[in-house]
Specification:
Elements: H1 2-5, H2 11-19, H3 38-49, E1 62-63, E2 79-80, H4 84-91
Antiparallel strand pairs: 1-2
């Protein structure tokens, strides 16, 4: 969370996440998305920035994106989804007031 959101977990939050792994069934794989503590992580994040998750397919990680037309030359091979807003403003030549 620190890298993507600038939020460091406190001991209590880290312990709460770790307890989610106590009764984990590993026959389907430790990193089976259905077994990961996304909801718990979302609740922790929401306390710090008032943003909740509405799906489990969204994070601050890199995403695939394709562009064509004016401004498409601004798209780099990899871009974090948290930077897309600013890229689109620049491509559309809209002043960034955020």
């Amino acid at each position: 969370m620190d890298y993507a959101n600038g939020i460091g977990l406190i001991d209590e939050e880290a312990k709460a996440l770790l307890t989610c792994y106590n009764d984990l069934k590993t026959e389907k794989g430790l990193y089976n998305p259905k077994q990961l503590p996304f909801n718990e992580l979302a609740e922790i994040q929401k306390k710090h920035n008032s943003v909740g998750w509405i799906s489990m397919q969204h994070s601050a990680d890199y995403v695939e994106l394709a562009m064509y037309g004016p401004g498409s030359q601004l798209l780099k091979p990899f871009i974090k989804n948290t930077d897309l807003h600013y890229l689109m403003l620049q491509a559309a030549e809209v002043e960034n007031r955020f």
